[in-house]
Amino acid sequence: MMKIFAVAGSVFVLALVSSAERLPQGPPPPMQGVRQNVAGMDENHPVLMSYRKAIVEMKKLPATNPLSWQFQANMHGALNMDGANDAWRWCMHGNWYFLPWHRGYIYYFEKIVRKMSGDDGFRLPYWAWETEGQNALPAPFRQKQYNGMVNVFFDGTRVKAANSGMPLRPDDQSGSFATDWQNVRGVSQFTTSFAALSYGGLRVDKTMIPKRPVSMDHGAMESQAHDLIHDAVGDDTGNMGDPDTAARDPIFWLHHANVDRLWNRWRDIAGHINPDRVADKDWYDQEFPFYDENGKQVVVSVSKILELAE
Known about the structure:
Blueprint: H1 46-58, H2 69-76, H3 98-117, E1 145-146, E2 149-150, H4 160-163, H5 177-185, H6 220-234, H7 251-267, H8 281-285, E3 287-291, E4 297-301, H9 302-305
Antiparallel strand pairs: 1-2, 3-4
């Protein structure tokens, strides 16, 4: 069976200076948001209500509007019938930009959700599918209706097991996302000459926009964890099973919030570090286009993506 995806107490300091000595105040440091585990959230949880409201509003906009659900999904991948747009089909898979590109992607998506929901404190929840007991699709995403209306979290293209709430298992020898994640945690290098030994993926050449970096074999985090969730939820025919349609499923964003969280958990392990800032300068300098909450295109380097905090 073909598998399309296979292969983060306030401290107050009192300064005693006269008005003449008062120093100019710079902008406040960015506030670190907190992403919550979706496990245990009911359908009326404030975070999910804001997410739901934003999706409803985004779906009212035409696909040509950068704030629309379709446009945001198409930035990851798009079908041929969707037409051409330089801002679409940018997803990084099969190279060492996989993790930072998706971090930037969900960061700006969060900003759009905050704008469209009116909830300035919104942060994407994450789906901790690698934790035993949390490997079933979250309940609010399985219901066809919400308050007697269509539930925008529901995607009918998912496999029956996912929308039925059954525990999902990876289609591999281990049969356990928990086991697979533990194996991936043991991969100590971000990038090497071998995909299976590269947590973040294979090194590829830096490009200049609009040219996209090439895709090669998937790295360890991508192939041994990330891909398996896409396959378990979407299989060969569902939205989540195809990079061209994956971001149309609302669970996609919770999945990638977890992938982003697990990148930090990997880096918590002694000796597990990102590429070297000198030897791998091209990784840090690579730029990607995204859209902010005002629909304005922003071009951001990997180095800047790693600094994003709000």
